[in-house]
Amino acid sequence: MASPPKTVLTVSPEEERAIRDAVRGADLATLGPGRVLASQAHVAGVFDLLADPAVSEPIYALPRPLTEASVAAWIAEAEALHARGEVLLILNTVADGTIMGYSRISVWPDRSAAELGGALRASLQNSGAGGAGAAHTIGWIFETLKVRLICLTAALDNVRSAKLIDRMGFVRMGERESIRPDGSVRRSLYWEMTREAWVERSR
Ligand SMILES: CC(C)(COP(=O)(O)OP(=O)(O)OC[C@H]1O[C@@H](n2cnc3c(N)ncnc32)[C@H](O)[C@@H]1OP(=O)(O)O)[C@@H](O)C(=O)NCCC(=O)NCCS
User: Fold this and answer.
1) Within a domain: residue 73?
2) What 8-state DSSP symbol labels residue 70?
């Protein structure tokens, strides 16, 4: 289960409503080619992506145990939360339909905040694609979903994620306990970035 940020922002009902509408109405074509919202049609493809431990092992929020049924339930949950304006589960597909990666954006409209998690196929890892993609997606979240705060977590030993998150200018704010779907706890490094700081960095 994703947890909202440590920092608590005060949010008006109007701002909360605007964020929910933005999540429900987000045009994924503006994020990039081949981006689609996950649906039940993608269960086998997502299972194929996540079955590789190099893709799924570092991520606390994925279904456990990983089966086609648990993936189907995970996608169904994301679809229901999308309808409430609280989640975008985005797949990165190529022409033959293969899923090359995913991003799950958890949104707390009443906190004007979001969290991003995701992974790339092993064949795309370690060549800069993750770093470039993460920065692009963070900018898209601030601009498109209208939140004012983004938090990120990574396992204590996830060197690549920590490097790319530090490089984007996120501020380290200690550690937190991330709860896996099976109830077990994973210690995580924890970062935040405000929209103001992101805009300032992007100038
Ligand atoms: C995490 C992930 C998205 C990063 O994408 P990537 O394309 O592999 O990473 P990049 O090539 O952009 O490299 C990221 C950073 O790690 C560094 N790095 C890459 N391989 C490394 C290695 N084996 N050891 C140490 N550092 C490494 C890069 O130099 C880069 O640092 P820099 O920004 O300071 O130059 C991708 O590896 C992935 O999907 N991993 C599995 C799932 C996962 O961990 N998801 C994130 C959960 S928070």
Assistant:
1) yes
2) H
What confidence tens digit (pLDDT) does each residue in 93-146 have?
A: 999 999 999 999 999 999 999 999 999 999 999 999 999 999 999 999 999 999
Give the total number of structural domains in the chain.
Answer: 1
- Kindly state whether residue 173 falls inside one of the protein's structural domains: yes
Alpha-carbon separation of residue 125 from 40, 128, 159 (angstroms): 26, 7, 13
Question: Domain with 91 in it: what CATH number?
Answer: 3.40.630.30
Domain that holds residue 43: 13-202
Question: Is 5 part of a structural domain of the chain?
Answer: no
Per DSSP (E only), the strands in the chain are: 35-37, 87-93, 99-108, 113-120, 149-155, 171-179, 185-194
CA dihedral over 21, 137, 187, 166, signed as positive or negative: negative
CA of 131 to the centre of ligand 1 (A): 7
Q: 3-class DSSP state for residue 34?
A: coil
Closest ligand 1 atom to residue 153 Cα is 48
Q: pTM of the prediction?
A: 0.97
Ligand 1 neighbour 24 (Cβ under 6 A): no
Peptide bond into 65 cis (omega under 30): yes
169 lines ligand 1 (CB under 6 A): no
If one residue of 160, 178, 190 were mutated to test the ligand 1 pocket, choosing by the most ligand atoms within 8 A of its CB, it would be 160
